[in-house]
Write a structure and sequence with these properties.
This protein is an all-alpha fold and about 525 residues long. It has 24 helices and four strands. The strands form two sheets. A two-stranded antiparallel ribbon has the order 1-2. A hairpin with a 4-residue loop joins β1 and β2. α4 runs parallel beside α18. The radius of gyration is 23 Å and the shape is globular.
Length: about 525
């Protein structure tokens, strides 16, 4: 279940952070109960410090899942409990909350808010839909492409909130039922938006929170591991998004749902929406330039090694001779932070003192997400310092030892996708990734063989309205029933899960240099 990442207010009836009161009460009791059981349950599998780490992790995870407290407040529990329990001192815990990757997310959020402020994302979405076509099936494809692309850079909830009013207007313009009854075109278009926003987020490191969790935990557990660059991530996982679009479109319009090929009425909603935007203003043009520059700098910073060809990155050109490696000095976070600051400097109207970004707009940033990421990094750091990751990995390694890599990857994808249907995808990855990484190493596999597909599968939540905010947003239109979402989502769960396994095994591992045995930085030979 994807955590909401801020942005515009959700429609009436859609909760942002709170679970039903009964579930919160269950979590309020269950969390402390598991905390005490981890501390005092008889057994010698874990030592005293490892028990304390497990206890704090159990309490924090349960309160995340059941939304007992606001997500940002729950994320502060490790900062309080690890020092009090003697796991990590306060001066060691605090830096984990402000790692380099937190600044990457912070800068990316500010740039995304700038896109929203000047309606750049809306203009592109409408342009894409108009170019692909206005027949019902083509409209579904247009909304899917636009949602997936916008979600590469802006969180999936805001993407669907942007697209939904346009989608509902289009549904009405072709005669679709907007109150009750079943309209194949309406259901297909709405689910296409929601599912594409979820899948689109996996294409870039900043597209969704689990991606950042993987990067942070990888750096915490394996500080000697080579960093995953922005361009390297896109090279590995953007093909998944590209493959998903036609496959998902066929599923939504011809298999799981059958959308008529013809159109009962002409479509003029898109034209009206585009006309209402008018020509691009100075603010839109300059924000577009900043966004394109940011994306280009991200993609080209670290270079790309495709085996037969090596494309050098620009970071080496700005690194003083004799200093540390470029990847250690200039990171994607440097780019994001620099471009965020630039947004506050670039003028739009000098006379009125208007710039691309002001602090009132920046204050809309989902600060709770930054705390959420920091809390996950703190838990990962405690796992490593206490040796709990090694201990749990050793205990679970026999489950995958000697098994086919394809079976192991498929099992991890299926497990993660099933869990994220009913739990937060961020909490799922924060708890699973340290264990999966060490489990893989203990069983003689590369840590990323389990960690990478699990991270991507955490975004494959399609069956229930509560699985992810995009699902909840489209469900709030009352045009999609729970039963129909579950039936269609089941097909997407299988299809996207299969695509994840195939793309990772046949392409992503090659691009990322993920072999079979543990590399030296993970304790391998």
């Amino acid at each position: 279940m994807t955590e909401p990442l801020g942005g515009p207010a959700l429609p009436a009836g859609i909760e942002r952070e709170e679970a039903p009161r009964g579930l919160r009460r269950v979590g309020l009791v269950l969390g402390p109960l598991l905390f005490l059981l981890c501390l005092y349950l008889p057994g010698e599998a874990l030592d005293a410090v490892q028990r304390r780490v497990a206890a704090v992790t159990a309490l924090t995870a349960v309160w995340w899942i059941f939304a007992v407290l606001p997500v940002g407040a729950t994320s502060l529990l490790p900062a309080v409990l690890f020092p009090l329990l003697g796991v990590l001192g306060a001066q060691k815990v605090a830096p984990l909350y402000m790692q380099d990757l937190v600044f990457l997310f912070l800068g990316a959020f500010i740039v995304a808010l700038g896109l929203e402020r000047w309606n750049v994302h809306k203009r592109f979405a409408l342009w894409t839909i108009a170019r692909i076509g206005t027949q019902p099936r083509r409209l579904v494809l247009g909304f899917m492409v636009a949602s997936a692309f916008v979600s590469l850079w802006i969180n999936n909830t805001s993407t669907v909130l942007l697209m939904m009013p346009i989608g509902v207007a289009v549904i009405r313009s072709v005669g679709g039922e907007t109150r009750r009854g079943y309209d194949p075109f309406a259901v297909s278009l709405l689910l296409g938006m929601a599912y594409s926003a979820s899948v689109g987020g996996v294409g870039t490191p900043v597209g969704t929170t689990p991606n950042q969790v993987l990067l942070g935990i990888l750096g915490t557990m394996y500080p000697d591991a080579p960093p995953i660059t922005f361009g390297g991530w896109m090279a590995a996982w953007l093909p998944l998004v590209v493959l998903y679009i036609p496959v998902g479109w066929i599923l939504l319009t011809r298999v799981a749902i059958r959308v008529p090929a013809g159109s009962a009425r002409s479509i003029d909603t898109i034209a009206r929406e585009r006309a209402a935007l008018g020509p691009m203003g100075r603010g839109e043009k300059r924000m577009t330039a900043v966004f394109l520059t940011t994306a280009l700098l991200w993609i080209t910073r670290g270079g790309l090694d495709l085996g037969v060809v090596r494309i050098p990155g620009w970071a080496g050109l700005v690194t003083p001779a004799g200093s540390a490696a470029p990847a250690e000095l200039v990171t994607d976070a440097t780019v994001a932070t620099a471009m965020a600051v630039l947004c506050f400097l670039v003028p739009v109207d000098r006379r009125r003192g208007i710039r691309l970004m002001d602090w009132r707009t920046a204050a809309k940033m989902p600060w709770e997400v930054l705390l959420l990421i920091g809390g996950g990094f703190a838990i990962a750091g405690a796992f490593q310092s206490s040796g709990l990751d090694h201990r749990v990995g050793t205990m679970l390694a026999p489950l995958i030892e000697g098994r086919s890599e394809w079976i192991v990857v498929a099992a991890v994808v299926a497990l993660t996708a099933a869990l994220t249907e009913v739990t937060s995808n961020t909490a799922t990855t924060m708890v699973l990734l340290p264990v999966l990484g060490q489990m893989a190493a203990e069983a003689g596999f590369h840590p990323l063989l389990l960690m990478a597909p699990a991270t991507i599968a955490a975004s494959a939540a399609f069956m229930l309205p509560v699985s992810t905010p995009p699902n909840a947003v489209v469900f709030s239109t009352r045009l999609v029933s729970v039963a129909r979402m579950a039936r269609v989502g089941f097909w997407f769960e299988i299809t996207v899960g299969t695509l994840i396994v195939l793309v990772f095994q046949l392409w992503g591992r090659w691009v990322g240099g993920i072999g079979t045995e543990p590399p030296p930085w993970a304790g391998g030979g």
